[in-house]
Amino acid sequence: MPVEAAFTGVVALLVIFVGLPWLIFHYITKWKTAKTLTGADEQLLDELYDAGRRLDERLCSIERIMTAENPEWRQNCLPGSAGRESSGSLLKDFDNLQSRTERLLGERR
């Protein structure tokens, strides 16, 4: 019996003083490395930034062209302005579009 008790005590001490700290430090280093961006993440962010910048430039170009053709185009695009449909019919159109979308998605399933 004393040999088995000594063996159990040694295993318990190894688990407490070696295994547990190793497990804790292992996951601490995993958490620290998971917080940083990888090279692929940085490259993706750079590509998204460039795409956003190009889209912004294109939008500015389109706005300049539209302003040159019709200086009042911004006023015509505002909700409730003359020449636009009433909000009730816009909501009806939105509801129709939403029901068609739901029906098409239901058919795909």
Structural description of this entry:
With 109 residues, this protein is mainly alpha-helical. Helices cover 83% and strands 0% of the residues. The chain contains four helices and no strands. It is elongated. The termini are far apart. The model has no long low-confidence stretch (mean pLDDT 83).
Quick gist of this model?
With 109 residues, this protein is mainly α. It has four helices and no strands.
Helix content: over 70%
- How many DSSP H or I helices? 4
Q: Calculate the terminal CA-CA distance, rounded to whole Å.
A: 67 Å
Count of individual beta strands: 0
Spans with pLDDT under 50 lasting ≥5 residues? none
Strand content: under 5%
Biggest sheet, in brief? none
Mean pLDDT: 83
Order of helices and strands: HHHH
Give the topology.
Layout: H1 2-34, H2 39-69, H3 73-77, H4 87-108
Describe this protein with a few key phrases.
83% helix; mainly alpha; 109 residues
